[in-house]
Write a structure and sequence with these properties.
With 195 residues, this protein is of the alpha/beta class. 45% of the residues lie in helices and 16% in strands.
């Protein structure tokens, strides 16, 4: 995907309006040495919201779509169908639609790719997956404001903590595999699935 393999990768996936601003503000509170170590890739949920999201991120002081080696720059990728490819290379992934009341997107996608996972408190549509990840101590749920910046700082600077979270997240995702087959088997047992 063109990211520097020598730098850890933070993917901000499925960003929705308002989330870019919150994440950018938290990012800009981090010491420059921390920011310079990481490559950040932002992937909006909908390309039509890309301009609005880019503007809110830029207003918070982050350069959008620029050279990823700069500590104040995020790579911006608003192409459809690229998020899982970015997750495959991620060390840490934010799952969007969750800092604002959108219900959240699937946290098992980055977990299955081996990334440490973080998302906001609005994850109603993903409750079962979040519950499984929480049960495995495999997800960071982000509170808004200063707490968000603190969580982000810890995940970006504590390599052992982040790596442990990533390993546990992958294990939880692996345990969830086969759910469609289990659902079909249960429906068959109840004579609700055609022979």
């Amino acid at each position: 995907m063109g990211a520097d393999p020598d730098r850890p990768l933070l993917v901000l996936g499925s960003l929705r309006p308002g989330e870019g601003r919150q994440l950018a503000r938290a990012w800009m509170t981090l010491p420059e040495a921390v920011r310079a170590r990481w490559t950040v890739v932002a992937v909006p949920r909908h390309p039509r919201a890309s301009e609005e999201l880019g503007a809110e991120v830029a207003a918070a002081g982050v350069t959008v779509g620029a050279d990823a080696t700069r500590s104040d720059a995020w790579v911006w990728d608003d192409r459809m169908g690229v998020l899982v490819d970015w997750y495959r290379g991620a060390d840490l992934a934010f799952v969007g639609g969750s800092l604002s009341a959108f219900g959240g997107h699937n946290p098992l996608e980055p977990a299955a790719c081996g990334a440490a996972v973080m998302m906001g408190m609005h994850h109603e549509s993903q409750m079962d997956y979040v519950r499984a990840l929480r049960g495995g101590d495999a997800i960071e749920l982000l509170e808004p404001g200063e707490a968000l910046a603190g969580s982000l700082r810890r995940l970006l600077t504590d390599d052992e903590f982040r790596t442990g979270r990533a390993q546990r997240a992958r294990a939880v995702a692996e345990a969830q595999r086969g759910s469609a087959a289990r659902a079909v088997a249960a429906l068959k047992d109840m004579s609700l699935w055609p022979a």
